[in-house]
What we know:
Shape: globular
Radius of gyration: 21 Å
CATH superfamily of the largest domain: Metal-dependent hydrolases
Amino acid sequence: MPDVTKILTGGAVFTGGSEPLVIEGGAVAFKRxxxxxxxxxxxxxxxxRGAEVIDVSGxxxxxxxxxxxxxxxxALARGLMVDIAPSANFVEILEHLWWKLDRALTHEDTWYSAxxxxxxxxxxxxxxxxxxxxxxxxxxxxxxxxxxxLKEIGIRANLCFEISDRNGETKREEGLAESEALxxxxxxxxxxxxxxxxxxxxxxxxxxxxxxxxxxxSDGTLDRAAGIAGDAGVGCHIxxxxxxxDVDDSLRRAGKRVVERLNEHGILGRxxxxxxxxxxxxxxxxxxxDTGTIVVHNAQSNMNNAVGCADxxxxxxxxxxxxxxxxxxxxxxxxxxxxxxxxxxxxxxxPRVGHDVAERLCLRNNGxxxxxxxxxxxxxxxxxxxxxxxxxxxxxPTPLEAANFAGHVIFGLTGWMxxxxxxxxxxxxxxxxxxTVDARGTAARARELARDLWGRM
Length: 457
């Protein structure tokens, strides 16, 4: 990557972070993969002599979004035309659809699902993803396909492979080995190629230890996964109490609720993501607080699966770090925020509830979460933070200020307004055209593979 400072100037800058600002006529300067200045355009330009100035007057400059829990492997299920049995509950949805899909994925399917899924997210302004991959027949070297696809695109990601006992001991062992291999590969690549951060993508990727859910993993598997994570200094990524069936299984299996069981086996911690957490009680909340575990809310997916609505306002009040993800349901964090903004007041029957949920989860907490899991600070435009920046074509009809920015996000901004996406100082999308890959060709091949995949299901 050329060692040249670049400045986005002239637009309104939303800085994000714990003390966000809106700077009218602002500018953001970045060199290689880091932000070096943020402020009024005249001040930034004067301080950065010889920089390349990029005029984005009339646009909105803000940090790229973080999607704290998604499944790229589900991308080829969109518009699925397969004769599958109707599902009366969540477990049947898994058995009839998702577990059939993940067993049918080939290595090529995995590459293209990762690619088209990531492209979809970038189009709507997501620059960092926390992905949870499953391909339960073709396990060995499956993550190499995900890594290769994401490096080619240039998106930042924390990755994991979904370990499970549901397909027997052999597949469980392959999953554990694949997880270890992924962690080792990405750690070695980052150490050997620190200078490539924001360049060829090597430093953009980190790893966690993935597990499906308590009800599909044994005590032994939990212990081994916790051991891998502990040895590598990483966290785990697991679905927690998404459905009551997970709780019932844990009580039968261990005489403990899900969060209690996971904690007993060393799965929880500051770098661990507990996705969903719908069916948890007050004692389990206390455990999540004590361990510093991250919870990720996925409003649209939960509604789609009819599994319930997590008490996010209660978790936030209790002090749990809660972020926002899409669970693979959509590629737009804008859409996810809009639904998350509505569902909690709907559940409570009280319009005073949940008005700040989307803002806190996506615009604040996701940056904290992402920064725990990747090689630097994300989710804010500040000196020293990673240069993950998006530019939107937004001409606000009312004043745009830090105090009302969330209102503009919920009621004004949409994914199609995103024009430019910069990740690690590298322009990934310009004028809604990708600069790193042939997006149209990738989508065309994905369509061909999807038909074959559906046939195998």
